[in-house]
Each structure stands twice: as C-alpha cells, then as structure tokens.
Design goal:
The chain is an alpha/beta fold. It has a single domain, classed as Metallo-beta-lactamase, Chain A (4-Layer Sandwich). The chain is built from three helices and 14 strands. The strands form two sheets. The chain has a seven-stranded mixed beta sheet with strand order 6-5-4-3-2-1-14, with no helix packed on it. Helix 2 packs across helix 3. The protein is globular, with a radius of gyration of 15 Å.
Length: 206
C-alpha cells in the first residue's frame, strides 16, 4: 500500500494511508480536510502549534502527541523517545538551533520520524543541521529551507547527506520566511531527489 505525503504549506504536513490520517504541525488548515487519527506537534510556536487547527481536525479518538503539555495533547514525548500508536511508530528526534536562539536545545523540542507501512518519513521540525540527524536513513525528509529561524537551503543540502534520505520535500518557505527560490536551491545541491510541492500537492511513496 502507498504512503501519501502532502505539503499543506509552511511546515504543515499530512501523511495518509488507506487506514491512517496523520498530521504534523497543522496550521491554516482548510475546513474540508479529513479528520485526524494522529496529530504530531513539534513545538509550541504559533505557526506549528495551533489549537484551532488541532480542534478542527481531531475527534474523540485522535491521539495528539507533543513535547509539551496542553489541554489538547494526549501523549507527551521527549527527544529520544518512541511511541507506538496502533501500527504507526513515532520517534522523537531533537530539533534545535546551533547558532541562534529561536529554538534552544534545552526546550526539548522535536522533529519526528514516522514509521508507517514500512516507510520512514522524517519531519525535522524547526532546527539547524544537527549531529542527531546522522544516519537516520529515511525514505523522505521534510526539511526547512527558509533560513532565519531554521536551516538555509545550503544547510539543508548538507543535512540530507547526514540523514541519508532517498527523497526530500522542502518546507518552511512561502509564509513568514523563505521563497520558492530556496526550495529550488535545495534541489540544486541535495544528494537525493528533491520534490518541490505546492500547498495541497503530494508525493507518494509506493
């Protein structure tokens, strides 16, 4: 069965199979999106943790996973931990800045490797190129390219070499910071295949 990875804009992602609908950092989500089985939040900045969007997507059975407490969070997770959610396994990977203070390592914010139907989908969260990325070996990496608060496109290209991703989807551009030119720049420097999506477009892992 296929795993569909859809970019919803900025850092928002939907991962969908025939059985499961999973969102990561839903923000500015349209009202007609399918309800969530799982929602993963990387950190509590407003453009990643939107209570309104979470409430729009969740049902009574939705598991909401985050590295911080909230009235909508059902499962806390810290860097280095894993969580089994039915047939989906979620690994929390550290996400932090090295040379800036927007995302301090001490906050214990995260990215996620989602293991689903034998595929590994890595959403880095808001981060720089960090040592913990080395050797993750994923099928697709969702990686920021906008700079300022996260990696630049050139940083992301170097990070993908450490991650050992087969495919990459640039995110964190086109809203707040970064432009499509940054995504194109990544495609010129990355060691793997880069899929530049428009909001609402998807890449399918068969």
């Amino acid at each position: 069965m296929a795993v569909e990875v859809m970019w919803l804009g900025h850092a928002s992602i939907m991962v969908r199979t025939e059985k499961t609908v999973l969102y990561i950092d839903p923000w500015k989500i349209g009202k007609n999106m399918p309800s969530a089985d799982i929602i993963l939040i990387t950190h509590d900045h407003y453009d990643h943790y939107s209570r309104d969007d979470v409430n729009l997507l969740k049902t009574d059975r939705t598991r909401v996973v985050a590295p911080m407490s909230s009235d909508v969070v059902t499962d806390l997770i810290m860097p280095g931990q894993s969580l089994a959610l039915d047939d989906v396994i979620v690994e929390a990977i550290p996400a932090y800045n090295i040379d800036k203070e927007f995302h301090p390592k001490k906050n214990n914010w995260v990215g996620y490797v989602v293991n689903i139907l034998g595929k590994r989908v890595y959403h880095t969260g808001d981060t720089d190129h960090i040592p913990e990325m080395k050797g993750l070996k994923v099928d697709v990496a969702l990686i920021p390219v906008g700079g300022v608060y996260t990696m630049t496109a050139d940083d992301a290209g170097r990070a993908l070499g450490d991650i050992q991703a087969d495919h990459a989807i640039p995110i964190h551009f086109g809203d707040i910071v970064g432009t499509r030119k940054d995504a194109v720049r990544l495609s010129e420097t990355a060691s793997c295949t880069v899929h530049i999506l428009r909001p609402g477009e998807a890449f399918v892992l068969a």
